[in-house]
Design brief:
The protein is an alpha/beta fold. 43% of the residues lie in helices and 11% in strands. The protein has 28 helices and 22 strands. The strands form six sheets. Strands 7-6-5-8-9-11-10 form a seven-stranded parallel beta sheet, with helices on both faces. Strand 8, helix 10 and strand 9 (318-321) form a beta-alpha-beta unit. 54% of the residues are buried.
């Protein structure tokens, strides 16, 4: 059913003016700069099959002064809200926080770079990238040519955030499904905001682009040269760290001062300087700060520890807060004389907020040079660790608060006996929250003991390379959509892992099976924190190309937009589908034809929630790690019970495909062993050719047998359409199983689409090209 297009309204005239619709690079689709209702029908079609599953933290609503309201057993709150709608409102709030963080990051970076280069600075992403901003082009309808153009897209995102946040007020939205639609909208906007931020960074800071083989970067605190003054940058915003590098270069100090980073600022800084080092993900922040290796700690924004001033003071590290998002109650020294700030930091050990990046950089370097020679940077020895461990009474208080439920007391008591094996394994799985030390009645320095056990091993991480090249998309578009490349696996998100080595294991498993593996953020770092028997990390074992068997570090959190952008590029470059203001067509193509699956194994932040939910709206399923059940909501189907009807666009008839492909949009797994078969299954698409489907089922069955157990997956019959779909190596066994259960063959769908199965402005002809 197609809804007739209305006459162009004044609102659309204004939108057309802002997106420069007169430029004829593509016709404008039905939803340029979409508002909350504009893609609601697409969302409702997704939610019909992938029903929200809620797991409330709490049965009460404490949102306003009417409360607390008990929402159990069908009760409604004083405002009329029920428990499902309350959970969905929390989801929207989380996604809005994540979207706002990336959009504000983009806003700050744009302001900083326009001040430096001017608004007319041209966007040039290199020889091999012409489709520079697939998310912005698709959602906004604008082809950005300058930094100033990015501001147009950002203003749209800010406007939508305000309307979405308004809907969270007490006595507003009363439908969980509409809140979920709004969360999907906010998260789509997040991918626009991320794309704005990273394009601006690439252009303004001259980050790598149009190149696959970026340098390998040293990682781990063993890689840090502790004989030099050390500046630690922590957070996500490179407007601080890049200026530090600039100052060092201008004063010929780059070889005399060590710059290292935590979290995404580390990834951004190593895109800017080949001398910078990566300490590790957020889970290593508290460990590293407590070593005292950093002479100066500079924080910017997002995923920085809120106790950084206190932890810095404990070990004598100087500390500067560099962005207004996190000022820690410190004196704002932005307008003070630089020499006065340096004197007070060196002599009085004062900490400051300095919101002028060049001044913060100058102060950091001068303070580091002065205080480094006076500070002792000594590791706790094994002998000292053994003595410290003897304070432990194994009272079990630490393990009661450990998110991963480690037997920490057992590990510490083993250290007291001189055995570091158990505590070393616990360190590898530790998420670095510090709750164990907070709870310890005997003040055992658990982190220092763990650090001693872990040693000073170093690893390699490839520097982030930015967008997938158009030339790469042309090479892989056909094999991905036909299924002969079994899938694109995107490992993204935070470091709240059940085991930090899981990421490297999953990367290795899928890369050797010739999936394309892409990574961002903390996942990109920890993928390099395991070596094989030959001492190689996955970045050294596999090629860095976006192709079968490649392992690609796309970049930081904001670089996630290039992964969703790559999916859009496949639809636009390979399938030649217009993308301008044409989100539904892009999302429908990805859902039905692009075998891709996200993996947010350690997701913990609101940013990770919005990144993942944005992928969901685009039709990409996401597998989450066990801690991510705390997000409160999943998108699950019920296999045979759900609606798997699609339109066969060539025959123009609705067909029941029976196959749940993909089966879920947001799914939690407890272990990597359960996750890997599910990831392979979620790459199955209705558009697979018989050869492609056989390849995908081969991986699904073999991963199931390797990690779950003998036999065949119980749902294998749902994904076999004809005999040609059965992998050759399992043909005899699968045929026997299918015959036993009475399976009947069915014809594959030539051009599957959801367009035409729900009310939409998009005509069916729009998906046929």
């Amino acid at each position: 059913m197609v809804v007739k297009e209305k006459k162009l309204s004044r609102k659309f005239e204004e939108i057309y003016e802002r997106i420069k619709a007169e430029l004829p690079w593509e016709p404008v689709g039905p939803t340029p700069m979409p508002e909350m209702p504009d893609l609601r029908q697409w969302d409702m079609r997704l939610l019909k099959t992938y029903t929200p599953f809620y797991a409330p933290f709490c049965d009460l609503c404490c949102f306003c002064t009417y409360g607390k309201c008990d929402l159990t057993e069908g009760r409604r709150g004083a405002c009329g809200i029920d428990i499902s709608t309350q959970q969905a409102r929390f989801i929207l709030l989380a996604c809005l926080i994540g979207c706002s963080a990336h959009a504000a990051h983009g806003g700050h970076i744009l302001e900083f770079l326009i001040e430096k280069h001017g608004p007319d600075k041209k966007i040039d992403l290199g020889t091999f990238i012409e489709l520079e901003a697939p998310n912005i082009r698709t959602v906004v309808g604008l082809k950005p040519e300058t930094l100033g153009d990015l501001q147009i897209a950002l203003e749209y995102v800010f406007k939508e955030i305000a309307h979405l946040l308004d809907s969270c007020h007490t006595g507003q939205e009363g439908s969980s499904l509409d809140y979920e639609s709004k969360a999907l909208h906010a998260s789509m906007l997040d991918h626009v905001g991320m794309e704005i931020a990273d394009i601006a960074q690439i252009v303004g800071f001259d980050f790598p682009t149009s190149v696959a083989e970026t340098p390998l970067v040293d990682m781990g605190w063993g890689a840090i040269d502790k004989s030099k003054p050390v500046i630690l940058v922590s957070g996500h915003n490179p407007a601080t760290s890049t200026v530090v590098i600039d100052y060092l270069r201008e004063h010929n100090l780059e070889d005399q001062v060590e710059v290292c980073g935590l979290c995404c600022t580390a990834l951004e800084t190593t895109r800017y300087s080949d001398k910078a080092k990566i300490v590790g993900p957020l889970s290593r922040a508290l460990f590293f700060m407590r070593t005292g290796i950093a002479d100066v700690i500079m924080t910017d924004e997002q995923c920085i520890r809120t106790d950084t001033p206190q932890e810095a003071a404990k070990v004598g590290s100087a500390m500067i807060a560099c962005l207004d998002k996190a000022m820690y109650g410190l004196e704002d020294a932005t307008e003070l004389d630089t020499d006065e700030i340096v004197r007070r930091m060196v002599d009085n050990k004062e900490q400051f907020a300095i919101l002028d990046s060049p001044k913060a950089a100058e102060v950091a370097v001068k303070v580091a040079l002065e205080i480094a020679p006076q500070r002792k940077k000594a590791w706790v020895t094994e002998e000292e660790a053994i003595e410290l461990a003897k304070k432990c009474t194994d009272c079990k208080m630490c393990e009661q608060v450990c998110p991963n439920l480690f037997n920490i007391g057992g590990g510490i008591t083993e250290v007291a006996k001189g055995n570091f094996d158990l505590i070393r394994q616990q360190f590898l799985s530790c998420i670095g929250c510090g709750k164990c030390e907070e709870e310890c009645p005997n003040n055992v320095p658990i982190f220092k003991i763990m650090q001693t056990a872990a040693g000073e091993e170093t690893w390699k991480c490839r520097a982030g390379r930015g967008p997938v090249m158009d030339t790469e998309i042309r090479n892989v578009g056909a094999p991905i959509t036909l299924g002969t490349i079994p899938g694109v696996i995107a490992l993204v998100g935070c470091s709240n892992y059940p085991n930090i080595e899981d990421i490297a294991d999953m990367v290795d498993e899928f890369a050797k099976r010739k999936y394309i593996v892409v990574l961002t953020g903390c996942a990109a770092m920890v993928a390099g924190m395991k070596k094989d028997k030959d001492g190689l990390t996955v970045y050294e074992k596999y090629p860095p190309n976006f192709d079968a068997g490649g392992v690609v570090n796309i970049g930081s959190c904001v670089s996630n937009a290039h992964i969703s952008g790559a999916a859009i590029k496949i639809a636009n470059i390979f399938a030649a589908l217009p993308l301008r203001g044409n989100y539904e067509v892009m999302a429908d193509y990805v859902l039905n034809r692009v075998g891709a699956c996200g993996v947010a194994w350690g997701a913990m932040s609101q940013k990770a929630a919005s990144i993942g939910t944005g992928f969901n709206r685009l039709g990409v399923p996401v597998v989450l790690g066990p801690h991510s059940s705390k997000y409160r909501r999943l998108f699950l189907s019920r296999k045979e019970e759900d609606d798997w009807k699609v339109m066969d666009a060539r025959k123009r008839e609705i067909v029941d495909t029976v196959e749940p492909a993909p089966e879920h949009l947001a799914y939690v797994c407890e272990t990597k062993e359960k996750a890997m078969p599910m990831i392979a299954k979620l790459c199955i698409r209705r558009n697979d050719t018989p050869q492609g489907r056989a390849i995908k089922l081969n991986h699904y069955i073999s991963l199931y047998r390797k990690y779950i157990g003998a036999g065949l997956p119980e749902d294998i019959h749902l994904f076999v359409r004809r005999d040609a779909d059965i992998p050759l190596v399992y043909k005899k066994e699968v045929r026997a199983h299918l015959q036993e259960i009475g399976w009947q063959p069915r014809e594959p769908i030539g051009l599957p689409t959801l367009i035409g199965t729900y009310p939409t402005k998009v005509p069916l002809d729009a998906v046929i090209h």
